[in-house]
Amino acid sequence: MTLTVRFAPSPTGYIHIGNARTALFNWLMVRRHGGRFVLRLDDTDRARSTDAFAAAIAEDLAWLQVRPDQVVRQSDRFDRYDAVKAALVAKGLLYPAYETAEELDYGRRRQRARGLPPVYDRAALRLTADDRARLEAEGRAPHWRFLLPNFTADPFEPERREVHWDDLCRGPQTVDLGSLSDPVLIRADGTYLYTLPSVIDDIDLGITHVIRGEDHVTNTGVQIAIFQALDGTVPAFGHHNLLTDTSGEGLSKRTGALSIRSLRDRGLEPEAVAALAVGIGTSHAVEPVASVDALAAGFDPADASKSAARFDPADLDALNARTVHALPFERVAPRLAALGAPADPAFWAAVAGNCATVAEARTWADVVAGTGLTPVIAEEDRAFVAEAARLLPAEPFDGDTFRAWTNALKAATGRKGRGLFMPLRLALTGLDHGPEMAALLPLIGRDEALRRLSP
């Protein structure tokens, strides 16, 4: 069977770096072992799901170099879900319950007071057809519960029934179905909760590996029971640790915190975002990569820690800078041109090491061109700068010109170190920091350099 994974976001907001972590875990699994990647849009919540957010998810995945083999919308599959619902009802595995939220809460409090676990008592199974008709005549609509296989003969005598799986990230896991309430799969308004459509889709799409956040661990025992009730092949499950912000709070699409869109708009590189999203909270050091696919070579979901990982945007900024420094000219040439910066290998070689983002190359393009530049010449350096102008070599300039020039200046003035180099940098760039002057001087050119040295 072909290895098949899925990423299943709800199009109710922009995906954030935590969502991207899940998408990338699945994508790298496919890139390493071969197989198929399915993008499944969990858009059963029609009130909050939008086509705009669905399109944004596709754009963000494409930016991260994740390329789905298939895209599926749950909103196109309601007929399929309804058919499975009917089949489960016919088997007696899905039953209607009429308790209100207040009645359920009261029941749980009573059980706790008696020292019992707050598990649903399956009272709805005792209702007769007349009872159900009466309740519906009162205006009550049923929600639908799945009858867990945690009993031998009498559903009112649940017993310990263990479900086991070898988690791809967390190792051996066990859930006791006897300790759980029968889960609600369909709300009273007829809408489906996540669980049933997800299992149906996984069966129909041939999903072999489900890799998702650890917040779904508690769902897995129930989902395995539903897979078995539907005669489906149970996939391998993996639950990776979650990312939090620097304060330890979970990430949320609703707040827009650390959304992929916002990171992209800040000019960050997809390789840096992916490398940190995948590598943080694992046993590996996070290093720059040339492409997202390059992460697949050493990818193993078991490397994820068992505890949450804190995501610090400062770490991403630092990794992005290292990524930008290593970008080859061929990769950035179109972007330099779009910025209005020189699409010139010599320019990029000169400034790349001083760019935390590619967009910062525009700053150095302005320095080279002299756009808005005011030479800075201290009063005590005026004679030195005038001598520098007099000794400026003839063109053509190359990588050795600056060294030859400063050696001549050193011999003529006796200056050395910072006293020699800083006045030249300030006069030529207006800044006390930046790329190596040996690389900038040929880009500035002799005429422009003389203009700046002789304000």
Uncertain parts: none
Main sheet characteristics: 3 strands, parallel
Helix content: 40-55%
CATH class of the domain at 379-453: Mainly Alpha
Structural shape: elongated
Beta-strand residue fraction: 5-15%
Task: Classify the secondary structure makeup into a structural class.
Answer: alpha/beta
Quaternary: single chain
Question: Rounded to an integer, what's the Rg over CA atoms?
Answer: 32 Å
Order of strands side by side in the largest beta sheet?
Answer: 1-2-3
Number of helices: 18
Question: What is the arithmetic mean of pLDDT?
Answer: 95
CATH-scheme architecture of the domain at 379-453: Orthogonal Bundle
Provide a descriptive summary of the structure in words:
The chain is an alpha/beta fold and 455 residues long. Among the domains are: 329-369, no CATH class; 379-453, Arc Repressor Mutant, subunit A, CATH 1.10.10. 43% of the residues lie in helices and 11% in strands. Strands 1-2-3 form a three-stranded parallel sheet, covered by helices on one side. α1 (17-33) packs across α9, α6 (195-204) packs across α7 (217-229) and α14 (382-391) packs across α15. It is elongated and about 105 Å long. The termini are far apart. The mean pLDDT is 95.
What does this entry show, briefly?
The protein has 455 residues and is α/β, with parallel strands linked by helices. It is built from 18 helices and twelve strands.
